[in-house]
Design brief:
The complex is a heterodimer of chains A (305) and B (248). Chain A has 305 residues and is an alpha/beta fold. In chain A, 31% of the residues lie in helices and 20% in strands. Classes of the chains: A alpha/beta (305), B alpha/beta (248).
């Protein structure tokens, strides 16, 4: 019997598969396709203090083995999420990570305080990749001191474990990971999307209304694997790996690199049943490579043997 | 909605860069006029949302135009091949049995979903006026098909190479079609002009999509009245009552 369970701060996952924030909404659409209780967890759509409409259209563009998106954190605001989405999600046996975003550090703290006492939320996931108004539009996740500051502020307010989702658009991901760990993060999620652009051949202008967008999908998997591999050897806190996973073998690769669990993003759009399919396949793949559990695979790439 | 493999019955060119594909699939019975299917094209990851043109017993028809590599690959698929489908998706055109007559306004690759609407109204014995707009003569398709259903058809081309020179509304004007209940689908500028002129009926919108089921928020539009309200074109749409969607 292959043991798929994973125990992480705040998250008791029956399997390591978590749909990634922004690729799964609040689960309602996918609940029409399969039982959400099959999943290990769900990282729900980013919550901000107030409703956000997001960017102008087009918000997505296809790329080789991936896609660009610039949705712009569209969400109904934390109050509506508490009132409508979390009570609905409570019917499922699945661990909920509340993804949190904001225009400044205080936004994160405000949202965390509102979600602190909600029993359905088991952990927070900080999206520090979005452009930050107060710091001239740069992402908090691109500077170690800013990433550490928001982590520390959220940790001081949070009553639940805090995972920080790191931006890959940096020179040294390890430096930022260590800064966030020192600031008190309970775990890391990496990676968020890579900044990219596509141009329209007729107009000569960017396809996305926002001009730039975040690249996701299988195209970014090697980058994500590399970053998980590097960070896993530099920090003691657990890592949730994300970036282009499309099959159980990809999950295993992330586990080997040092991830304890994984998130599935873009591939939910390509195959809406991708998560349950991977959950079904994973025990077979682990067995094929002589593994008895998910935990046994984690970090194999930098262990002896 | 479900993911399923369909069998291609036929795939043929019907106008410049425009193809009609007939597919046999189990999801056909769940389809309503104006809905769409999200099609996976071989090596491309994101699915192509394509409207349903005609719904038959166990087969349905799509009409698509080659606009990029994905639709080019689709055009090269052959009879007998299997095709990865997800659908039917979205909310289609409601049929109003109390209407004595209706006007269907289609522009370019927005024409196909109106065909099934015409079929439904003709089956009810209603008078169906159809105005089709294309850029030029070589792009014209489905004129004969609508006529075969017994519709009153007018055609407009932007360059005047066929039918009335100008838009579908110019063709409606010229033919003095006086019907106030309209169904439309086509380019955004055309839809905006139609909604400025008509108050009753339905408009179908198009947008770049990712998931096709309402999860990713790639294809949202604002409500015309309530600035805080938004609609997902793939989920609440693609068909909306006239006046619902705010134009940019």
């Amino acid at each position: 019997m292959i043991d798929l369970s994973v125990n992480l701060p705040g998250l008791h996952l029956k399997n390591p598969i978590i749909p990634a924030s922004g690729c799964f909404g609040f689960g309602r659409e996918f609940a029409q396709l399969y039982d959400l209780s099959l999943l290990g967890g769900i990282a729900i759509k980013s919550a901000t203090p107030d409703q956000r409409f997001g960017n102008e259209l087009p918000r997505v563009a296809e790329t080789p083995m991936g896609m660009l998106n610039a949705i712009g954190l569209q969400n109904p605001g934390v109050d509506v999420i508490i009132e409508k989405e979390l009570p609905w999600l409570a019917q499922y046996d699945v661990e909920i990570m509340a993804n949190i975003a904001g225009a400044c550090e205080e936004d994160y703290v405000e949202v965390v305080k509102k979600l602190n006492d909600h029993p359905t939320v088991k952990a927070f996931e900080l999206n520090i990749s979005c452009p930050n108004v107060k710091h001239g539009g740069i992402g908090l996740g691109t500077r170690a001191e800013l990433a550490a500051k928001v982590t520390a502020m959220v940790k001081a307010a949070a009553k639940k474990p805090v995972y920080v989702k790191l931006s890959p658009n940096v020179t040294d991901i390890v430096e930022i990971a260590k800064a966030v760990e020192q600031a008190g993060a309970d775990g890391l999620v990496l990676i968020n999307t890579l900044l990219g652009m596509r141009l329209d051949l007729h107009s000569g202008k960017p396809i996305l209304a926002n001009k730039t967008g975040g690249l996701s999908g299988p195209a970014i998997k090697p980058v994500a694997i590399r970053m998980v591999y590097q960070v896993a050897q530099a920090v003691k806190i657990p890592i949730i790996g994300v970036g282009g996973i499309s099959c159980a073998e990809d999950v295993l690769e992330f586990l080997y690199a040092g991830a304890s669990a994984v998130e599935i993003g873009m591939m939910n759009f390509v195959d809406p049943y991708i998560c349950p399919k991977i959950i079904e396949e994973l025990p077979k793949v682990l067995a094929k490579y002589g593994l008895e559990s998910v935990a046994q695979a984690t970090g194999r790439s930098h262990r002896n043997g | 909605m479900q993911e399923t493999m369909g069998l291609i019955i036929s795939n043929e060119q019907i106008a410049d860069a425009t193809y009609r594909m007939k597919i046999k699939a189990s999801i056909t019975e769940a389809m309503t006029p104006g809905q769409f299917v999200n099609i996976k094209v071989k090596e491309h990851l994101l699915r192509r949302p394509i409207s349903i043109a005609s719904i038959e017993e166990d087969t349905f028809v799509i009409v698509y135009r080659i606009v990029g590599d994905g639709t080019r690959i689709l055009s090269e698929m052959k009879k007998g091949e299997m095709i990865d489908l997800f659908g039917p998706l979205g909310n289609g055109y409601p049929i109003h049995e109390e209407q004595k007559d209706v006007l269907l306004l289609g522009g370019g690759i927005g024409v196909p979903p109106l065909y099934e609407v015409a079929k439904r109204y003709r089956a009810l014995g209603k008078t169906v006026y159809v105005a089709l707009g294309f850029d030029r003569k070589g792009s014209v398709f489905f004129e004969r098909e609508f006529r075969k259903l017994g519709c009153q058809v007018v055609v407009a081309t932007m360059d005047g190479s066929y039918g009335t020179k100008g838009t579908v509304l110019d063709a409606v004007e010229k033919a003095k079609i006086d019907v106030d209940f309209v169904y439309s689908c086509g380019p955004m500028a055309m839809l905006k002009a139609i909604e400025a002129r008509y108050q009753k009926g339905y408009t179908s919108f198009e947008a770049r999509m990712a998931c096709g089921i309402g999860a990713c928020m790639a294809c949202v539009c604002k409500d015309r009245e309530d600035g805080k309200l938004y609609h997902r074109i793939c989920k609440e749409g693609p068909v909306f009552a006239i006046g619902k969607v705010g134009f940019a």
